[in-house]
UniProtKB/TrEMBL annotation:
Cleaved signal peptide residues: none
Keywords: Membrane, Transmembrane, Transmembrane helix
Protein name in UniProt: Dolichyl-phosphate-mannose-protein mannosyltransferase
Record carries keyword GTP-binding: no
Transmembrane stretches, start-end: 67-97, 109-128, 134-149, 156-172, 178-198, 225-245, 290-310, 317-334, 340-358, 370-387
Taxonomic source organism: Mucilaginibacter boryungensis
Record's keyword annotation contains Amino-acid biosynthesis: no
Length: 521
């Protein structure tokens, strides 16, 4: 009995997921952690085991879809939930791409090449094994551009509507993708031009004809406006509703992107950038704007093949240039944040999509396959080099753990203090500020004993800790997040001066944290 193609792809996907899970668990057991996955672990523990008002945590934690995706795997393990989600999600991305490929290309060589990329490319492995939200971003980025390309071929607005839905999910996987809409003017214009029934094939001639004919000009304007409504109205309304939700429950429209209690990246990006500046003493030139596009080409030479394949398709070329403009804009707007690996990975996914769409148009398949194979090998090599020389510590640490089993000690201090809290007798109440201490809460076994800012009694505990808490976790002067939390030695001295009945005893200390026992006589 012959196995059908969809079933065959499903079996490959399951094996690939198992491969990712084994790699992810192995790295986790070695001691590799990253801040985003620990943030999801901590918030998941609060949702399912915390006490107090958890509505704000459930509804306003950002990015919201990757956060919800971890819920499925919390029944297995809180600590493994993010990496299991990323492993399964990356496998799902492969399955979507493989099914798209087999519908357009009969040659199994391309499927094998796709499988090699998903098994060996370090960016894919980082996406699958780190527990970060990259996998969902790549899934919906691929689906968004897939439906745009489908519209070019079919001229059916249904695909534009699906692309709009994908854009909504993409924005709620990473809010920075909202800026992608700024660069859709030429894209939407090209879509409108393509939809006109004209004899000319090239977009530039179609545009010239349309603007010189009043009837066609009016039709072009109406279609362009209609497509803007179809593509943008759903993302913009969704963001507006979500901002109103934030205003209602947190008294801040941008709570989900500005508050360290809602998203991990607010403080992490600032601290990483400041630490890098302290180390290097200057802004590194390769991350300067405009040079980003050159870095993208070096990271993803396959994008040059994609551009070549669409060399005679003006509107597709405009589509491919949109992400370039997007990352250049991000570098200018967020000038104190280094571009993370996910924004480079967009071009790998987009280049693979272009190969899927256009590989069958190449006449000399043998030479093209050899070229593609060489470019993929180069692609994998540059992927390792980019991660190894990354400005972001977490990315550099991942490749070191993967290839050299050099485990960073970034979480040692957090694990030590969490282990001490776990060993405390009885059921003591420990006051912590999880804006900066969420990795510790992620490692703590019982979050019900923690007094945190999402609870209504936290402010009362800050004012009178002796009445509410048995222990207090304070950031030391050496802690990189020292300036971003209220619970510091300075605060401790203030409350001792305000209440001479308060007795504070240092119980445990690491490089970044100090745990004090609190008693009120």
């Amino acid at each position: 009995m012959r196995i059908s193609k969809p079933l065959f792809l499903l079996l490959i996907t399951l094996v690939l997921i198992l491969y990712y899970v084994i790699c992810a668990v192995y790295l986790n057991n070695l001691g590799y952690f990253n801040q985003e996955s620990l943030f999801y672990v901590e918030k998941s523990k609060i949702v399912f085991e915390g006490i107090g008002d958890r509505l704000k945590v459930i509804g306003l934690t950002s990015p919201i879809f990757p956060f919800y995706a971890t819920f499925i795997f919390t029944v297995i393990s809180y600590n493994l939930a993010p990496i299991l989600a990323s492993a399964v999600g990356t496998g799902l991305l492969f399955n979507i791409m493989a099914n798209t490929l087999t519908k357009r290309l009969a040659d199994d060589f391309y499927l094998l090449l796709l499988l090699v990329v998903f098994m060996l490319h370090p960016g894919i492995l980082y996406m699958a094994c780190s527990g970060k939200s990259m996998y969902l971003q790549m899934v919906f980025f691929f689906l968004f551009f897939l439906n745009i390309f489908k519209f070019y071929n079919s001229n059916t607005t249904f695909h534009v509507s699906i692309a709009s839905i994908c854009l909504v999910v993409l924005v709620f996987c990473d809010y920075k993708f909202i800026w992608l809409t700024l660069f859709f003017l030429p894209l939407v214009l090209s879509i409108s031009i393509q939809s006109l029934n004209l004899s000319e094939k090239e977009s530039i001639f179609r545009l010239f004809t349309s603007f010189n004919n009043p009837s066609l000009r009016r039709k072009l304007i109406n279609k362009t406006f209609a497509l803007y409504i179809i593509i943008f109205i759903l993302p913009l309304v969704s963001v507006l509703i979500y901002k109103m939700l934030n205003l209602t429950h947190a008294a801040d429209l941008n709570y989900f992107i500005d508050s360290p209690y809602a998203t991990w990246s607010v403080l992490a990006e600032k601290i990483d950038y400041n630490m890098l500046l302290d180390t290097t003493g200057h802004h590194k030139l390769p991350e300067a704007s405009i040079i980003i596009s050159l870095r993208v080409i070096l990271f993803c030479p396959l994008i040059l093949v994609a551009l070549y394949l669409f060399r005679q398709k003006t509107y597709q070329i405009l589509t491919l240039f949109t992400p370039f403009a997007f990352v250049e804009f991000l570098r200018i707007k967020y000038d104190k944040v280094y571009l993370t690996h996910q924004y480079y990975m967009l071009f790998l996914i987009l280049a693979l999509l272009c190969v899927i769409f256009r590989a069958n148009t190449v006449k000399n398949q043998t030479n093209f396959k050899i070229l593609l194979l060489l470019v993929i090998v180069l692609q994998i090599y540059t992927g390792y080099q980019f991660l190894d020389k990354s400005y972001i510590a977490e990315e550099h640490h991942f490749i070191n753990v993967l290839l050299k089993t050099e485990v960073p000690d970034t979480q040692d201090s957090n694990q030590d203090i969490a282990n001490y809290i776990n060993s405390l007798p009885g059921d003591p109440h420990v006051m912590v500020d999880d804006a900066v201490a969420y990795p510790i809460v992620a490692f703590v076994g019982n979050v019900r004993s923690m007094i945190m800012p999402y609870q209504q009694n936290f402010l009362s505990a800050v004012e009178a800790p002796g009445k509410y808490a048995d222990y207090m976790l304070v950031a030391s002067d050496k802690n990189p997040a020292y300036g971003y939390t209220q619970l510091t030695k300075k605060y401790l001295q203030q409350i001792r001066n305000a209440d001479n009945r308060l007795y504070v005893e240092k119980k445990y200390e690491t490089d970044n944290w100090i745990l004090y026992k609190i008693e009120q006589h």
